[in-house]
Amino acid sequence: MNTKAVDFTGLAARLDEAQRTVTDTPSLADTLDISIDDAYRIQSELIGRRRARGESMTGVKLGFTSRAKMAQMGVSEVIVGRLTDNMRIDDGGEVALSRFIHPKIEPEIAYRIARDVDPDDPLVDIESCVDSVAPAMEIIDSRYRDFRFTYTDVVADNTSAAAYVIGPWQGPQDVANRAVRLEVGAETMLGSTAAILGDPVRALHALLDISRRRKIPLRAGHVVLAGAATAAIPLTAGIAQCDIAGLGHVTVKGIA
Ligand code: 0L1
Ligand code: MG
């Protein structure tokens, strides 16, 4: 393990290059001992590089929102990553698989933030800052070899965020306990929105807390991907679709 100062810029560049060149990289934890604070700082630098290339921020995503995943990683806190316009795919649109190293897709609930949120305001009511909710899917693509990473690794790697697609926006509503169906080729995954912290609305509260501690901005128009409602399925060529009961349908086509 290292005792030297963490090279934030160098590690952000390494993860950024892995994403841009579609080439995996070993877990940082193989050779380094980074803290969770270090990991969020690397993530910020990584996002800074994307912004310097002209990408704009479109929102945030939560990960480790299922009890099973938290237990697997030995953690009790959700993680937050950032979304950019370069990751957005239109509903019914196509995405080239060549953009990714080993993509997987998962069903999500998306919220839209209607006005800027000041996480330091003790009176802020995060639920009232949301004006819409939609079915969504996230494509995750760890930049680490074989999807093998630690808790701090995955935070540094922007929580495996790679792309996302949002279905039709609906008015704000209770989306707890909705049946979820994800289909990718011949594979089907059934689940419930209850897998997202018991109720996806809890993801908004968890986000507010993390955004205050990690200085992650929440702006009007930002999308919040609340977390996965089932385990992820490898994304292959063809249609991937997700249905959320009473909320709607969202599709994307993977192109080989
Ligand atoms: O739920 C997620 O968005 C995944 C977070 C990162 C963990 C992974 O890559 O499996
Ligand atoms: Mg996700």
TrEMBL record:
<dbReference type="InterPro" id="IPR036663">
    <property type="entry name" value="Fumarylacetoacetase_C_sf"/>
</dbReference>
<protein>
    <submittedName>
        <fullName>2-keto-4-pentenoate hydratase</fullName>
    </submittedName>
</protein>
<dbReference type="InterPro" id="IPR050772">
    <property type="entry name" value="Hydratase-Decarb/MhpD_sf"/>
</dbReference>
